[in-house]
Amino acid sequence: MSTRREFITLLGGTTVAWPLTARAQQAERMRRIGILLPAAADDAEYQARVGAFLQGLQQSGWTIGRNLRIDTVKP
């Protein structure tokens, strides 16, 4: 009889915990940012501006590849 109770308790606990586990495994939504700057990729001012922008994003909790994708386009 105790084995049956243990099984029912285990089954009940798993059923309650399952939605929490499913939510925890969902990937964070990926956001996408496009950068358009009229400069060459090796331009020092361009690199400084993009670097400052990326640093600000990181300080705000954004991580490239986890919840953020950045596309750079040369006009």
Describe the structure.
Helix content is 53%, strand content 16%. With 75 residues, the protein is α+β, with helices and mostly antiparallel strands. A two-stranded parallel ribbon has the order 1-2. Helix 2 links the parallel strand 1 and strand 2.
CA-CA gap between termini: 75 Å
| SS content category | alpha+beta
Report the principal-axis shape.
rod-shaped
Number of extended strands: 2
Beta-strand content: 15-25%
Query: What is the element string, with H for helices and E for strands?
Result: HEHE
Number of H/I helices: 2
Radius of gyration: 24 Å
Strand ordering within the main sheet: 1-2
Low-confidence stretches: none
Helix content: 40-55%
Mean pLDDT: 76
Key attributes of the depicted protein:
75 residues, alpha+beta, two-stranded parallel sheet, 53% helix, 2 helices, 16% strand
Outline:
With 75 residues, the chain is an alpha+beta fold.
Record the SSE blueprint:
Layout: H1 2-25, E1 31-36, H2 44-59, E2 68-73
Parallel strand pairs: 1-2
